[in-house]
Sequence to fold (1288 residues):
Amino acid sequence: MEKRIYTNILCIYVVLVLLMRDVLGKTCVRKNSCKCKQDDGQVIDLSPLANSNGPRFKDFADASNQDTFSYNPCKSFDEGGCSNVAVCQMRSDTGTTYYYNAGTQDSASFQWDDANGLFDVVYSADAFFISNDNTSSPDDSFVFVLETKYACPKTEPLSAGTILIIIFISGVFVYLIGGVIFQIFVRKNSGKKVIPNYEFWSGFPGLVKVLEENQTMDENQVIANNNYNQGRRGSVYLGIRMPQRGERPHVLDNGGDSYGETDTEYKPSEWVQTIINSVKDVGHQAHSVFSELDVLKEYNGQVEWRETARWVKYEEDVEEGGKRWSKPHVASLSMHSLFELRNAMADSPVIMDFDCHSLPQAVDKLLEEWVDCGLLDARLRPHIRDVALKGHKHRHMKRMKNTSRRNSTSSGGGRPLADIADESNYGGSTAYLPNSASVTSFSSDIMISSSSSPDLQEMGGENQLSPNWKPNTQFVRKIPKDSQVANIMVGEVEDLETRVMGFMRLKEPRILQNDLSEVNLPTRFLFFCFGPRGHEMDYVEFGRCMGTMMVDEVFREVAYKGRDKEDFLAGIDEFMEQVTVLPPGEWDPKIRLEPPGKVPSQEFRKNAASSVAKRPKPLAPVEAEDGHSHDDPALEMSKIPFSGLYNDVKRKIPHYLSDFKDALHIQCLGSFVYVFLGTLTPNVTFGGLLGEATDQYMGVMECIFAAAVTGILFALFGGQPLNILGSTGPMLVLETIIYNLCKDNDWDFMPARFWVGMWTVLFILLIVIFNLSALVKYITRFTEESFATLIAVIFIVEAFKKMMDIQKEAPVNFQPNVPIPTNCTCIPRDCDLTNLTSMVSTAASVASSTSGATNTTSKIFNYTCQELSNMSISWATLGAEDCNHYDGAMMGPGCNAPQYVADVFFFSILLFLGTFALAITFIDLKRATIFPSVIRQRIADFGVLLAIVIMVLIDYFVGINTPKLTVPEKFQPSHPSRITTGWLVSPFSDKNPWWLYLAAGVPGLLSTILIFLDQQITAVIVNRKENKLEKGVGYHLDMFVVAICVTIHSLLGLPWYVAATVSALAHINSLKKESECTAPGEKPSFLGVREQRVTALFIGILSGCAVLITSVLKYIPMPVLYGVFFYMGFSALRGMQLVDRLFLFIQPAKYQPDLPYVRHVPLYRIHLFTIIQVLCLGILWVVKTIKAISISFPLMVLATGVVRKILECYFTQDDLKWIDDLLPGKAKHNTEKTIVSTVPYKNFNGNSSVTSSTMDIHDKDNSLKPTFFVSDECDIRNRSKEQGNTKL
Fold:
């Protein structure tokens, strides 16, 4: 009897309605016991309801509560008497429980109940088991309702296999389509080459080796071939042919044929340029290389590899005796050795991208190639291997004494060096051949046993053979990071009849052996050269040539990116094209050439320029790149208001956070103290002068307060925070003129000055709104240097003037032999009224120059004549004070005698000159040769501060009363009337007429011109290209911040501050960065300026706090600060082209420096340009000095720009390009000149054929190079172009 159980599964109401509309009339085909699939592709899956441990729904009762049921979808379960069932029925009767099999999983079927809109799962059981022999039978069928979301049909998810197939097909599609697009549009390929990796796929079938029928083997059979005569040592074949060469660098095909595949003329320079510009994969990118030359030497009867020379950038040799390294020098190579090396490498193996993990593997590969090529007798292989794997002795490692002998030779020789490797670890123990042995002494048994040693030991990494070896950790600091090593080993070996050499580039840089190199850096290149005895110096020269080439910037890239021997040889040929030959009769090869101060760029050797047609335009000469660019996008004129300010803010925001982080360097501390003291002193001095000119309306305290306000605001928000705002001479003149104008007309000075400031702010804002700061692009070097030189000279002159003023306060007796008169007696008052006036005037003239003399201009007397007559007074013995008390007068030649002060003036001069000399010495110490570079750099960073501290201490301990720095101790206005009213200025005054507020626009316009020129000329000087600033300019933002500062200063009654040229240059010079990790012999290179805001911010803050540190500042002598003045002006003049051109007047032509403008501009035109510039400078000085016309100083500065424009009528644009800057829009008239030369040249392939080459020589174009001219005329032409060739 068959029992059926129907389990109806009901969806939630909403889903049920949808199902009723969509699924009625559909069938559901059973997939398994819990899933079925409809004809529309949707599935119903109950597997989420399944339970692995027993039934999911347990012991639920029917409507009559007579039976209970347990149910588990999908998976069978056991319960009581039910075994392996889907539904179990349980009935209790008289204390006994009966279990019935109500359905199994295999019987599950699925159907739709269209009438009720339900989905039915039907389970059936053909027979059921009744426990405890119960013969009663339950009903035939049962119906249960289960509401679950899993009854809703849904789309079946894709299987994992389907997903993988879709991904694979999509990847192939993207690979094919994307690859074809890349090949067509990027590499410009056509035909079959548009297929991605066409060479790989076309050669893919050849990667599977088809075994011949007579060599049929089983699937797991391994064939080993140890035939050394065929050069296959330890090769293992697994039915796959292994490629014989490493992975070639990936070359970007530009659509043209590569060299070696066509019959085009061989040009090494173009070949090398193609390699350098085509290979782009990461694995073959060039790194810095440390080259080490080891020569095979004997020691106590044994041989060792002894370090002889090394290169980081320049060559260093071990001096005779091996006690020290030589001074780094430019390598002087033998031309004959270069030719011999090139010819030898043409027949020698060049292995690219060999994958090995130890030195023995590399040596075995080279030996294998030498034997295969017939360069080496196979019987000598063990001997050469044994020699190549000898230990290495480096100069920094001392030999260990009293060490036990680790190995002995066949002749009984010992091994005294603890740092020489034990060759038995390499598997070639019996192959050592003494120098007195011969090839015939070998037996075939020895050869076979030696050569068949397994590689497993080598692969095991047993290459740490010298436990006492330590790397040179001090020297490694001089090597650039991520450098790799080129190990060069040369030596003479017994029984070799011919010379063998080989070059190898490893696939990955690895430390092949711990004592292989002096430093603990991975090896990337190996070069071996062995030869017969008697030619050791020739082999050393080969090694020197290879070591020098490996550190050459261009050849190094060829070594990294070369694909085969042809590329390697092309690199040697290109190197030989660039060398300069020195005549043997005019130069001694033993002389070591000093490294140059500045290494020329080698970019012209890398830039591909195969023809004139392909070259879009000639490269600009490197030497003409200095200066300030007039094509800067920041200086473009725009009709959009505020566009310049917006672009400046947009340019500066990304760097704002780094402006604070970049200040975390010790150099910034020294710069801060130096510039603070260098600006505080001018502020105090300027305040004193301004106080005298304005009757203390603006004095020292106002200047200090102004320095704090402008310093903080400009440092936080300025476009170029390296600028230092401060007092200037032209601004002092302007302030004086405004005050005198108000004083003469009885106007109130501060309110009138306020309106001048407001007009100035209005004009500056108009400049910012209409982007007029872009006009600074018309300021050339002519105007810049004229203005900067004027300010620097003012600093120097003022420093000496202030020093001379000390002599007034502490006069010096320059006539010590002349006795100083001392006769000065008191004369009583003449009571005769007729003589009173004459006596008073005479006494006044005497007393005015005498300290403590009676003020005889007063008509009030202390005593009457009657009282004086009644007193007994000894007038001759009275001093000046008593004489004044008794209404007398001091008279006599001694009354006018000066009061000399001993030693103060001369000691002040010593402090003045000592500060300047120490500052110069400490700053220039970084270019000296004493002390390590780190110490020199730190001393240079704090050079001015150290000079100040040393001189202050000397002054303190000597104890002479020199004049000291005085700073106000109270924070209050200088003028008494302003102390009560406070700092704020009232804009209105009863004394000032209403029209004065409008008329203030005239001086406001002059002050705007002066502020604009002062600020922007200084900004242009700071932003010049030679300073290598990286964070962009901010001319418009600078002017906007200056406008805000002028507004605040006008309200507070403070002087207007603008960019101070000398202080800004001092700030720039104190923050210059130079390379610290420089190669031995290499001069530190200028890296740029440490661009940040913190030093300027702290200078402003400390300037405001100066009144709080008067107890410290009062110990600083003024002569020391005047020495800092002198240094600031002097350092601003150093490096100015105007100063260099002035020295050309007194230098003979043969001693004149090799400067770019001297090469390209006739000397008389240089002198004429200099004279005109000096005349402009003199006119500016005169206008500034004469107070009556000093108001026109801003206009005269503008006039220098007009003079520069007029110079174009006489000087050519080419002349002005070298001695000045070209104005915007001026086309360069230095057109290219093509010289066609048919000069024969000799190639480097060893043949003597002479061909003619047509060559284009472009003026000032370094991209094309001739190939070794025979003609002297062409050689002179070539030398006239500065190409920076490496000298031999």
